[in-house]
Amino acid sequence: MQINRKLLQIFIHIVAWLLFISMPLLIFGKLEEGIIPIKAYYFLFRIFLFVSLFYLNYLVFIPRLLSKRKFILFAVSLIVSIAVIMTLNYLTINYSLANEAFNHTDNSRKIAGIGFVSVFLAAIGTSIKITQKWYNNEKQKNIINNEKLNSELSFLKSQVNPHFLFNTLNNIYSLANRKSEQTGNAIMKLSHLMRYMLYEAKKDRVDLQNEINYLTDYIELQKLRMPDKSKVVFNIEGNENDKEIEPMLLVPFLENAFKHGDIYSDDAKIDILLRIKETELLYKVENKIDEATINGKDKVKGIGLDNLNKRLKLYYPGKHEFSTEKKGNVFISILKIRFD
Questions:
Q1: Distance in angstroms (rounded) separating the CA atoms of residues 279 and 260
Q2: Are 130 and 188 in contact (CB under 8 A)?
């Protein structure tokens, strides 16, 4: 399918250039009155200049400058390229005049015509590229929206884990029976989690600080069932302000760690690292595996991480690195995201 699409694009480009080359003949009926010179080598040289300008703009200037919002540099590059094209054509005309290939009249009109064609080709290339980008963005949005609609129910079910809720409620009930001062705080954290899952998760982006607060509350509630709460270490490095992220993107790591992790043995530990830089986020979770809870070597990853991988490909195409690794009885998950 991809090869056929490429061949179709090449065919369209070839047909378009053939139409462009034959345009003066179709309009004027003869080449002498057009902007294309009579002699074949002048003709081919001028076409080569036009083709070079078009693809230099189409393949270099637009994706590397215009798409990255370097508008001034894009405009300067395009103007300089057009000036070079016109200069080379001017020198070609003078050379041809010296060899009496053309009449000495209307040379300024020929140069003006060449300038017009150069600007026209640059405008056409820019329009095509912008239209393609718009179409691809709209197509990607439709894919994402369809994916959201198809997976919304299953996603919410996976996040609102009934075992987690039951365990948390049982732990809170136990705290209440002991008249513990932690009871109110635990209820408040559970309320924050539920509110975040039901409302914030519907947004396209949330503040990174809110996502971190969700992770912190989740960890604190999971600690209620652990004999030694120091087994979970959550380190945050960097400044999370003014950063946004896809909601509920980081919690599957924790769900997987607490579900499959060995949190009761003496040497058990869950290490969580969130390192935030200006242009990149690093998220790493290491946990000892409870082999008794794992049936098959691949099930340690869980459905949550598989779903996470699909979401990353949709929301951060070409801007993320996601990997999992099992070293002995330690499972390591690493996620890197580049910010826009």
A1: 32
A2: no
Q: Are strands 206-207 and 232-237 parallel, antiparallel or unpaired?
A: unpaired
Q: Which residue, chain included where needed, has tokens 């209620």?
A: 224
Half-sphere exposure at residue 28, Cβ-oriented, CA atoms within 13 angstroms: 12
Cα 337 from Cα 340, distance rounded (Å):
10
pTM: 0.54
Residue 120 has a CB neighbour count (10 Å cut-off) of 13
In the chain the beta strands, taken as DSSP E runs, fall at: 206-207, 232-237, 244-245, 270-276, 280-288, 320-327, 330-338
- Of the chain, the percentage scoring pLDDT greater than 70 comes to 76
Q: Is the pLDDT of residue 278 over 90?
A: no
Closest alpha carbon to 324 in 296, 300, 307: 300
> Can you tell me the distance from the alpha carbon of 189 to that of 203, in angstroms, rounded to the nearest whole number?
21
Q: Rounded CA gap, 149 and 140, in Å? A: 14
240: which DSSP letter? -
Q: Which residues contact 63 (CB under 8 A, 6 or more apart)?
A: 129
